[in-house]
Amino acid sequence: MKLLQENAGEYRRKWQDKKFFAGLQVIDFNPLGAANDYIFIFASMWAVCKKEFRQFFSSLTGYIAIFVFLLLTGLLLFVFPDTSILDFGYASLEKFFDLAPWVLLLLIPAIGMRSFSEEFRSGSFEILQSRPLTFWQIVNGKYLAALAVVAIALLPTWIYFFSIQQLSTDSGMDLGATAASYIGLFFLTAVFTSIALCCSSFTSNAVVAFIGSAFACFLFYTGFHAISLISAFPAGTDYYIDMIGIDFHYRNMSRGVITLRDLVYFLSVIAFFLTLTRNNLFKR
Question: Residues with Cβ < 8 Å from 232, sequence gap 6 or more?
Fold first, then answer.
């Protein structure tokens, strides 16, 4: 096992030095060779992604998690009187986009809590290190697999849109605004997934990873907004504190407004947590 780990480290060093399996340094730019390098990188990431995706659906846990999410959102939107769209009086999914982040606060940590913690606990992370994979390939592969699972959970919610569209007595819902709101919800789930993956890389206990990621998602989603409401801050400071939180940017996109500032924010937060995850793996 030690020899395999040393070889894996050599593979990673070759990739970082822009070398390939033969260990030859690239002097002249070779478009075909560069294309082969990128194909190999994405193929390795895809292999990790497929493994994680199949593992999640290899038991009833994955199906139950998605079923509970859809059941809970369905009950909140159509059954419970305090949050029912039918009692709202307008053909709108505003209630759904307000409630979905709170449900995802529990769903996404449940999906991502075992990404690395289970690997650490079972000792399979050492085997994963023996493969010719960089830490970035491992992190991105696991991240894409978890994000794909969450995307599968969100896809059936379009039934809500078509149901309300059919029940509407006027011109119906604004498709463009709804699509923009779904884009905002997708970016929200992408940030939550990166946070869950990062928390899982800190511990070998899946329960601790779940609690930590749920708390971190809650803190980044609404914590900074709550802090901005404190009257002790001077005028204008509360606005910038509120901008740090996810809720500020998600509210803009859930209203159907997509701006470059919000997109850059979401991509920056995702990159930050994935980089932190990669650094945690590098220190092990």
Answer: none
Q: pLDDT digits over 65-116, tens only?
A: 888 888 988 888 888 877 777 776 676 788 888 889 999 999 999 888 888 8
Query: d(Cα 45, Cα 147) in Å, to the nearest integer?
Result: 14
Evaluate the CA torsion angle 245, 142, 111, 205 in order and state its sign.
Answer: negative
Task: Answer yes or no: pTM beyond 0.85.
Answer: no
* Token duo for residue 119: 């690997």
User: How many angstroms separate the CA atoms of 192 and 219, rounded?
Assistant: 11
The span from the CA of 18 to the CA of 128, in Å, is 21
Show the tokens assigned to 157: 């919610």
DSSP letter (8 states) at residue 131: S
Question: What letter would DSSP give residue 222?
Answer: I
Q: Where are the domains of the chain?
A: 2-283
Contact 21, 8 (CB under 8 A): no
Residue 195 CB neighbour total at 10 angstroms: 29
Comparing CA positions, the residue from 100, 240, 247 lying closest to residue 161 is: 100
Pair of tokens at residue 207: 């329960």
pLDDT tens-digit map of 186-207 = 999 999 999 999 999 998 888 9
